[in-house]
Design a protein that fits this description.
The chain has about 500 residues and is mainly beta. The chain is built from 1 helix and 38 strands. About 5% of the residues lie in helices and about 60% in strands.
């Protein structure tokens, strides 16, 4: 019996319908009996915001023990310190480590084959920024750490087949260059190669390890509004095989790259393909020689930025970033699902109790969902680290959602929040007579969406605490949609 995911099931049904249409000229009836075992994934979904820290999450992953790890930066005593946090599968914080001395910047964290973590960034040495790397076990203990003075800003690090590491760094010259560095398993430099053009800045932000070398994506720019998405492919010794540029006549750049059938996919943003030069998500699929298979831009009425992309066999590609889709000045963390030909399946946005939300990183999880990291922002420039675990459709429970009764209600009901008016937290309750996908939104008095959440829940009565700490005083409207049911209510924030 063949096991398939929901997306594969939809594809199978589509093919069968096409087959029946092709056979419609026949005078006999074909009865097809199909036995399909659909994999039902048990998926935890949750969102976490950390108001105790002024900071941001740079990179997230699922560790070898199936728990989750985030790497980011938080401000402590007017300096930024690297922060690594470990979460259980249901989102509980298992440990929280602050690492680094002086002003730090984090960029990348990866698993190692001995069930540890390798991470990197940069620190301020007092004479400029230098590269910082460290290896850590899953209990949060540092195994070794290294600082390198001849390059800085470790944008990427991953383990190589010989148990060493490869990193993407940069030089600190006036016109920065990309530096590919190969390390031993203890962090000793084995070789380093420099790439770049005269009078231009060259950055490679993510690298994929191949059997015959490396391929990395970033951008090259002479400054101002000009620049190109850049992809560089090398052999295992770091010698260049080819270099390709992509984009138009304005500003283009790459942030993420992943393997896919027939080549690679690169995600970034572009201002070249909109008549007003607004930023759009820019996705390019290339073959193994760097030739373009297709390139597409995505956005709504406003702007959109892609910051991370992953190939997912049942879909195509899942892009994470942020967008001002309604062109109202509010950036919303964005997930976009794209097929192998660049067609948009659907998209989902998350704006949890904030004025702004941004995704910087996405990784696939073992339960067929996603783990994402970034930050949320509030009025007054308060920025907090943000981590979200979603299902396979990019949906996640609102923060603090709890079932308060499993008894099946007689109908859909959205209750009035209480207390109302409130400052800063109120409770919102709803009832589901059957299992439903739900869309919950909050709009301000001008109709601008300031909060959104999507989730799937079985029948029952639910309640969650809506935290409006980041919202200004005023009248707001919260709405609830489940199937054909829709209702909206007014709430008042008084501060």
């Amino acid at each position: 019996m063949k096991k398939i995911t929901l997306f594969a099931l939809l594809g199978t049904v589509h093919k069968l319908l096409n087959l029946l249409l092709l056979r419609k000229q026949k005078t006999f009836v074909i009865l097809i009996v199909i036995s399909i075992n659909v994999i039902i994934y048990s998926q935890s979904t949750w969102q976490k915001i950390f108001p105790q820290y002024y900071g941001s999450v740079t990179k997230v992953l699922q560790a070898s023990d199936n728990n989750f790890i985030s790497l980011g930066d938080v401000r402590v005593n007017n300096y930024y310190t690297m922060q690594i946090m470990k979460y259980s599968q249901d989102g509980n914080v298992l440990w929280d480590k602050l690492i680094g001395k002086g002003d730090c910047q984090s960029y990348w964290i990866s698993n190692t084959r001995d069930s540890c973590l390798i991470f990197g960034g940069s620190i301020d040495s007092g004479f400029g920024r230098i590269c910082y790397l460290a290896k850590m076990n899953l209990n949060g203990d540092i195994i070794w750490e290294k600082a390198y003075t001849n390059f800085s800003h470790c944008y990427f690090i991953n383990q190589t087949s010989d148990d060493g590491y490869v990193i993407s760094a940069k030089t600190d010259e006036l016109y920065e260059k990309f530096k590919l560095v190969k390390l031993s398993n203890t962090g000793l430099i084995q070789w380093e190669k420099i790439y770049g053009e005269p009078l231009k800045r060259t950055h490679i932000l993510e690298i994929k390890l191949l059997q015959d070398g490396y391929i990395g994506a970033g951008w090259v720019s002479a400054g101002g509004q000009s620049g190109d998405m850049l992809v560089i492919r090398t052999n295992t010794s770091g010698d260049s095989i080819w270099t390709r540029k992509y984009g138009g006549n304005y500003s283009d750049g790459g942030y993420s790259i992943d393997n896919c059938p027939g080549g690679f996919v690169i995600a970034g943003d572009s201002r070249s393909f909109d008549s007003t030069h607004k930023s759009q998500s820019y996705i390019v699929k290339i073959d193994n020689n760097g030739s373009v298979i297709w390139e597409k831009c995505y956005s709504g009425l406003g702007t959109e930025f892609a910051r991370s992309i992953k190939y997912k066999s049942s879909i195509g590609f899942v892009m994470a970033g942020y967008s001002d889709t309604l062109d109202n000045g509010i950036d919303v963390a964005k997930l976009r699902f794209i097929d192998l030909n660049g067609n948009n399946y659907f998209e989902n946005s998350l704006l949890p109790n904030s004025q702004q939300s941004i995704f910087k990183s996405i990784e696939l999880t073992s339960d067929n969902g996603f783990i994402l990291g970034g930050y949320v922002a509030y009025v007054g420039a308060f920025v907090n680290s943000y981590v979200a675990k979603t299902d396979q459709f990019g949906y996640s429970n609102p923060i603090g959602l709890n079932i308060i009764s499993s008894e099946i209600p007689g109908k859909f009901i959205l209750h009035q929040n209480y207390p109302n008016p409130f400052n800063p937290v109120t409770k919102i309750k709803f009832e589901l007579p059957k299992s439903s996908g739900i869309e919950f939104n909050v709009n301000d008095i001008l109709g601008r969406k300031v909060y959104t959440a999507y989730y799937n829940k079985p029948a029952g009565t639910y309640e969650f605490d809506f935290d409006a700490s980041g919202f200004a005083s005023g009248i707001y409207f919260y709405s609830f949609k489940a199937g054909e049911y829709y209702d909206t209510k007014k709430m008042i924030i008084l501060k």
